[in-house]
Design goal:
single chain, alpha+beta, Nuclear Transport Factor 2, Chain: A, 3 helices, disordered N terminus
Length: 128
């Protein structure tokens, strides 16, 4: 028997919305997807805590003058709505330099249906 008193959220939809809004620099929409106390842990061990600080980080990482794209390769979602694993490729062009990132991100989803945590892991590039 399941407990129908707690809301079930679709972590795949939340992840897709996040990875659509952030590259488009739709900051109000990104903000609405995040818990106030969101924590982002980078693959190098850096930690950012709080929605405002994380949005400032994103704005700095994705400046308006940069060309940025991301391609979500696949999403695996927890059946209980608590998390999504997102495999993606990112490309950033800024001042004539190109940076490509291949990552897996784990999004922790709060009971309220917002992103409570983001943990980034770098992955090796796929061989073509």
């Amino acid at each position: 028997m399941t407990d129908d008193s707690s809301p079930i959220h679709d972590p795949e939809k939340i992840a897709r919305a996040f990875f659509a809004c952030a590259p488009a620099r739709e900051w109000a929409a990104v903000e609405a997807l995040l818990e106030a106390g969101v924590t982002r842990t980078g693959s190098e061990g850096s930690v950012i805590t709080g929605r405002d600080d994380y949005l400032a980080y994103l704005r700095g990482a994705l400046p308006e003058r940069a060309r940025y794209s991301s391609e979500v390769k696949r999403i695996a979602a927890a059946a209980d709505g608590s998390a999504a694993l997102v495999e993606l490729d990112e490309r950033l062009e800024l001042d004539g330099k190109v940076e490509e990132l291949h990552e897996v991100m784990v999004l922790g989803i709060s009971p309220g249906g917002r992103i409570a945590s983001i943990t980034a892991y770098e992955r090796a590039a796929r061989q073509q």
